[in-house]
Design goal:
eight-stranded mixed β-sheet; 31% helix; 24% strand; UDP-N-acetylmuramoyl-L-alanine:D-glutamate ligase; four-stranded mixed β-sheet
Length: 312
Amino acid sequence: MRFPLNIPAEAPFDVLGFGTNAVDFLISVPEYPNFGSKVELTSYVRKAGGEIATTMVGLQRLGMRTSYAGRFGDDDAGRFGVKTLEDENIDRGFSKVIPAAETQIAFIVIDDKTGERTVIWKRDEKLRVEKDDVPPAAVQQCRLLHMTPHDTEACIRLAASARELGVPVSVDIDNVFDGIELLLPLVDILIAGSEFPQKFLGVDDPRNALRALESKYSNALLGVTLGATGSLLLCGGEFLQTQGFDVPGGCKDTTGAGDAFRVGLLFGLLQGEPVEQAGRMANAVAALKCRQLGARTALPTREELASFLATA
């Protein structure tokens, strides 16, 4: 099955990412602690993360040209986050450093036995982007716009500009934000976390939830990530069940696995792959990411992805 929308063939950037970046403090423990207990950690490390910044890193490693539009604090964490994007050669022309703001951080507890994580995060209100602060002209520079809807009104303005220009809009959503119902009609690729359908629609069954979203918002491609079991996509009225892959060497950390899924999916679509193959790529990138601690650490190169898909 082919993706039903035309993706512009040429632009300075393949993808413009608008949304979150973060600095993650990853704490590994032998097993997740019970309430009120104490546990000795097995390791502790600082890594860069955040949904959109991580997705841009993943796409860049696969050979895409990406630009990140987001906000950093003027603190040590912000300098660390900016440097990680510099190191990946990601364009930051639409990003800003906000004076007296603290960069978004997350403390992430990882169970050594399973690699599953629990995220405790904080975002400074000073990092909020108002609708009049977004650069609509930036959309002219990309083939695809990818966002998280934390600053929903700003996302709506960017998505409306993209719709006028014929640039597909992708949204990474795992929570319900004020005004989200006004954004979703402007979204072409809607990939949600497993808990979003229940939070937003009160529907547990993923197939029923995707049908309801498609009926209400007419998105071209919808999906829900289902952890180790894979994912479910809906395109052109047809469901596509995509299976998960075993993590080479065992799962070390699921932090950023959903971001990695979106990396593979968007990469496949931008390459003109059928939706089925893009879904397979999405699950493969997610599995490869889980090889090491951190949202970005083990994101694969194009060669690693091709080798994994050829042998998996």
